[in-house]
Specification:
This protein is α/β, with parallel strands linked by helices and about 240 residues long. The chain is about 40% helix and about 25% strand. It contains 9 helices and 10 strands. It has a 6-stranded mixed beta sheet, with helices on both faces. A 4-stranded antiparallel beta sheet has the order 2-1-4-5, with helices on one face. Strand 9 and strand 10 form a beta hairpin. Helix 4 packs across helix 5. The longest helix has 16 residues. It starts with a strand and ends with a helix. The structure holds adenosine-5'-diphosphate and magnesium ion (MG). It is a peripheral membrane protein.
Length: about 240
């Protein structure tokens, strides 16, 4: 589903990604961990074309992102992304937030878009919020709407960049639960998170990044119980 080869990314003279190789299979849930500044967000942003890589190759959802002929807008329809900040449209209701993409981009009719949006609100546990506005919802509820909004575009892959980092602790669980449900349904997911319990429980594979390198990867039990690399051991000793 995703194939990354020798990916380099710099900002000016500052080299951020220094030759990343990664393959992610359909239905796989891959968790990316690593210290702040190691390039995790940059890596995710490269995967959906929000950042342009300097070198290397990215294939995702059957399209070659790094080919200049590829239509990035079209590619992004298949690659959902959720950030730390939910970025909902404040002046639209929850239902409108979820239907605007399908109506405007996928050209769905309103009734069809709304019926799917209601299904998704049910799925994220917010069936009674469709007429509310974002500011009337808690952070955890808004993030669940943001996930529903991404799913409304029927993506083939979902990318999450620290989706629970801006939430009050009591709201983290409800968002992780929605993500866990999605994983069990077979969605292909790449998730940057500091939630190590979630990584262990839901992840099929864990990637550890440090200093722009993919230092080590393995199953959750390999990475958390028997990390091979000193840098992984040092990082885990601080966060576990
Ligand atoms: P992480 O998500 O692992 O914390 P990031 O990918 O956000 O790491 O950042 C990696 C490095 O790239 C950091 O040193 C950060 O300061 C730098 N960086 C990120 N975005 C930009 C940018 N737009 N311009 C310059 N430097 C950036
Ligand atoms: Mg980040």
């Amino acid at each position: 589903m995703i194939r990354v080869e020798n990916l380099y990314k710099s900002y000016g003279d500052l080299e951020i990604l220094k030759g990343i190789d990664a393959h992610i299979h359909p239905q796989e849930v891959v968790v990316v961990i690593g210290p702040s500044g190691s390039g995790k967000s940059t890596f995710l942003r490269c995967l959906n074309g929000l950042e342009k890589s300097n070198q290397g190759k990215i294939e995702i959802v059957g399209m070659e992102l790094t080919d200049p002929k590829t239509n990035i807008q079209q590619l992004r329809q298949h690659v959902g992304m959720c950030f730390q900040q939910f970025n909902l449209f404040e002046h639209l209701t929850i239902l409108e937030n979820i239907t605007i993409g399908p109506i405007q981009v996928l050209k769905k009719n309103k009734a069809e878009a709304e019926s799917f949006a209601r299904e998704l609100l049910q799925k994220v546990g917010l069936p009674d919020k469709e007429k509310h506005y974002p500011h009337q919802l808690s952070g955890g509820q808004q993030q669940r709407v943001a996930i529903a909004r991404s799913l409304a575009m029927q993506p083939k892959v979902m990318l999450f960049d620290e989706p629970t980092s801006a939430l009050d602790p009591e709201m983290v669980g409800e968002v992780l639960k929605v993500m866990g449900d999605l994983a069990r349904e077979g969605m292909t997911m790449v998730i940057v998170t500091h939630e190590m319990g979630f990584a262990r429980e839901v992840g099929d594979r864990v990637l550890f990044m440090d200093g722009g390198f993919l230092v080590e990867e393995g199953t959750p039990s390999e990475i958390f119980n028997n990390p091979r690399e000193k840098r992984t051991q040092d990082f885990l000793s601080k966060v576990l």
